[in-house]
Amino acid sequence: MAIWVDKEQCVACGACESACPFGAIVMEADKAVITEACTACGACVSTCPVTAIIRDVEEAATAIDKAAYKDVWVYIEHADGQARNVGFELLGEGRKLADSMGQKLAGVIVGDKVEQLVKEVFANGADKVYLVEGKEFAKYTTDAYTAVFTDLITDYKPLVILMGATINGRDLGPRVACRVGTGLTADCTDLGIDEQTGLVAWTRPAFGGNIMATILCPEHRPQMGTVRPNVFKRPQPVFGRTGEVIRVSSTVKPEAIRTKVIEAVQVCTGSCNLEESEIIVSGGRGMGKPENFVLIEELAAVLGGAVGASRAVIDAGWKPHPHQVGQTGKTVGPKVYIACGISGAIQHVAGMSSSDTIIAINKDADAPIFKVADYGIVGDVMEVLPALTEEFKKAKQ
Questions:
Q1: Would strands 279-283 and 336-340 be described as parallel, antiparallel, or unpaired?
Q2: 134 φ/ψ angles, rounded to the nearest 5 degrees
């Protein structure tokens, strides 16, 4: 057991018993006793007013100097020379965290010939930018990006790191966390500061989305998490803002990169680029059959939007997974979200509730989707969708 009680120092105040999140501390003979339920989270160590609860000597010797870690970092993911929106969304939220913790906000850019992104990062709230450039970073590879990010953490010791829960972010985050020996909270939908500890409170769905878990990282640094795109709004950029640019030379050797990107094959057109679309037209099981999704696609094409789908549609094989909106799919926040034949299960609503305007079309007037919709149309989607498409065509002409 990594935690033990100095019986001579213990005054049985009960502070540790109340602080233990696992109920692993009990009072016996007016002394605190740590049971087998202890996970060595350390919550009791910092709570004890008489320092009677301490860690094992061996672990204390290898403990990190948490005071050496500072600043909030945001990884700026990019593709084809353009930064992804999720990086700017996290800069906005990272600004709040940094101000609350009395830290600076930094953007981390890794790539080849990507210096033009620096101005955008400053405009969206960063105080400084760590810039790593090299031909080996022209395309994302697990080995190269993991190595350079690990080196950055080792050299500069950030307190908090935010990454987008994108395909690349979900690959990079856990690998870096493992290399530096810290924890990582994946797929977060909310961030905050824990009032008692001052740590980042990472909130994410758990148990299939049935509950929301709030997770802290008290004993390891940096505190890391990946955050779903579109759960936070992008801040209003202030162009002209400047800051400190820290250029870092890469130590990654070509032979350390075990993979090579030969060709990028686009398997999904713009119709399923849900994260970047301002208009999304989604369909559910109320569409009846997969052939009827042509009505969804026609309306999306007229509006210049993307095609989304509920989990029931994906599970039925009507649409591929990249189109899925919801807790187990993509979290979106377009200007307009049109839900067609979607009942409004809580898991789906969690993935689109941040949309600016929600329009629901359903023949069931009591469908839960109408509770979150700004506008509702009670009717058969087979009749409503063609009429809407025709009217939008006329309006555009």
A1: parallel
A2: 175, 155
